[in-house]
Amino acid sequence: MTLTPPRPPRIASERTHHGDTFIDYYEWMRDKESEEVLAHLTAENAYTDGVTADQQPLRDAIFEEIKGRTQQTDMSVPSRRGAWWYFNRTVAGEQYPIMCRVPALTEGSVVERYTPPQVVPGQPLEGEEVVLDCNEFARDLPFFSLGSFQVTRDGRLLTFGVDDTGDERYTQHFKNLETGQMLDEKIEDIFAGAFFASGANHLIYAVADDSWRPYQIRAHRVGSSPADDIALYTEEDQGMWLGAGMSSSRTHVVMTSGNSEYTETRVVNIHELGEVEPTLIISREQRVEYSTDIIDVDGRAYLVLTHDFDAPNSEIVIAPLPEAYVPFERLRADWVALMPHRDDVRIESVSFSRNHLAVMARENTTVKVFVAPRSSLSHQLAVGDPRGIEFTQPGGFSEELYTSSCSGMNIMSPVIRLNYTSFLTPSSVYDYFPDTDELVLRRETPVLGYERDQYTAYRMWAPAADGAMIPLSVMHLADVDKTQPHPVIQYGYGSYEASMDPYFSVARLSVLDRGAVFVIAHIRGGGEMGRSWYTEGKKLAKKNTFTDFIDSTDFLASLPWVDEQRIGIMGGSAGGLLMGAVLNMAPQKYKACLAQVPFVDALTTILDPELPLSALEWEEWGNPIENREVYDYMKSYSPYENIRATAYPAIAAVTSLNDTRVLYVEPAKWVAKLREIISSDSPVPLLKTEMDGGHGGGSGRYTAWRDIAWDYAFLLSHLSDKK
């Protein structure tokens, strides 16, 4: 039976800027409430199901492999907060975790008090309590995503956020953990990331405007009506994203407005919420990108700033906390270096434990942890050594490609908890005791039947046309026959200074087991090689991102063990923009493309500041509304506007109806226009829409496994075809 793809009507609408008019025949699909639009998406799903029905056995096989390698009844490593150890359990057959806790020891040595209990999968501990069973809460919901989840330090009150549609707007709930009763108190339609300040007195949260931009920070007094909540700060600039957090000293709420190029921070003491104006640290007019923390040193409050002023890879400094705003030059005169700028190290964050500070920084593409005693702060404030303080690194991590990071640093704990993973090592949790330089493995996530020595991962470097060297992460079976050509799946992202760091993937094993080579191209626009690697792939240099990806393909195709006729590509969100641009520039180089929630109608979106996140994107892509050069440049690469009448590879665009980051309409329009323009001998592009999902697709682990099985089956099915 021959299946006929849906044929949406062509209804002309005009978009005019800078004297240039673009006729868009599919903009009508933007009406999410339209019965015609919903019917079209449903028809597209039916068509995609029919066309790919022969891939179902492969999908089922990959799903069962993921399921079979996963210890489905499992648990996390407990983390201590106050007098309790908190941890999660998962149960076979259930989609979501069960949040639990047990009492912690309050006597004994430091090692005894901070050694987590041994939690056995499926076996309750003495004194164990269920804090929240997400499965029970989500039982009748079409979608479930847990947002902020926090218990007061005294262990009496829980707050948690729930998104039940996928649009990333949360309802904040409260639960009395002494009685086990849910409170009637709720805060509707808030942003993720709520947290308690000043014990259980106030909940700090953000609300978003109609364009899904968090613009206001509020304080809710627990037990009162949300109508009485206090607005601590409102960010009026549509191009600035507003967020908040607690200082390490637990004395201040830190509120930060920012974009990809500069920030502005205000702080307010938790005992003065709503009573005084927050103190501005560095104004946005200075165009400094910085993060702010507050820490106590010898009984006095100090700012700890990670900033990029004359330091593109950032540096960390410390300065006395001013009682009121001071001019930037005066603040600079008072600050002292903790970790000075280095050309070869990109500083990412700093956090504090009871006795130490830990810095996460990127060196030679790899995130590493650097540790120093807090006592060194007093000495450095006294002497002001321009070399900063002396840091050490936890030993024991020797793989070529890995990721290490601090996890939930606790100002009350003498222990630094580290997460570790690599392409070959499942996610692992360590406790590091800096005083004794002891690194204790608490748990490596079990992967059933996995034998590490059957796989290999290593770095290669691809030359870009302008001489830059592009790092590639290459994974395949250890015994792959390099005298024969093999199919390749090439992944890329390349935006927002986001780095595609090494991580272990159970699902990826199914790809490698079938003889495919998996390659991540760390292209410009990402952050793997420092700040300049990012700036060379944004705004009017954005095309470097696309040409780097194509140059990486050419390098791979030149290898004797790569089949240049069987290279598939995949990327999501801004990586979906990459997919669309690359297909327009070099469609003949690829056999198949999987575009996940793809940002393929970029210019239309950025030209409308009322659309979700559009104004925030101006510091990433440029402002095409005000700048004709930016408009012309974006129009020259935006995938929707540059489709060519030539042969394209097999394409599947995967999206979600309730995605607020990249609206479903972008891939829906793109697929319709691809079918209209590309040559008729191309495979028919496909559209798959999750009707109850968000930016990450549907909710629940089994749903996620089926989604990734669908994606990999699509690519592998086309790459197995040597025609």
Detail the topology: elements first, then pairings.
Layout: E1 13-17, E2 20-24, H1 35-51, H2 56-69, E3 74-75, E4 79-81, E5 84-90, E6 98-103, H3 110-113, E7 129-133, H4 134-138, E8 145-151, E9 157-163, E10 170-176, E11 181-190, E12 195-197, E13 202-208, E14 214-221, E15 230-234, E16 241-246, E17 252-258, E18 263-269, E19 279-280, E20 290-297, E21 300-307, E22 315-320, H5 328-334, E23 336-339, E24 345-352, E25 356-363, E26 366-373, H6 375-383, E27 402-406, E28 416-422, E29 428-433, E30 438-444, E31 455-463, E32 469-477, E33 486-492, H7 506-513, E34 517-521, H8 531-535, H9 543-557, E35 562-572, H10 574-585, E36 592-596, H11 602-606, H12 618-621, H13 628-637, E37 650-656, H14 665-677, E38 686-690, H15 701-719
Parallel strand pairs: 33-34, 33-35, 35-36, 36-37, 37-38
Antiparallel strand pairs: 1-2, 3-5, 4-5, 5-6, 6-7, 8-9, 9-10, 10-11, 12-13, 13-14, 14-15, 16-17, 17-18, 18-19, 20-21, 21-22, 22-23, 24-25, 25-26, 27-28, 28-29, 29-30, 31-32, 32-34
Helix pairs in contact: 2-15, 9-10
- The number of strands is 38
Shape: globular
Mean pLDDT level: 94
Please indicate the percent range of residues in DSSP E strands (runs of 2 or more).
25-35%
- Helical segment count: 15
Rg measurement, Å: 26 Å
Structural class: alpha+beta
- Describe the sheet with the most strands: 8 strands, mixed
Give unreliable regions as ranges. none
Kindly report the spatial arrangement of strands forming the biggest sheet.
31-32-34-33-35-36-37-38
The share of residues in helices is 10-25%
Distance between the termini: 22 Å
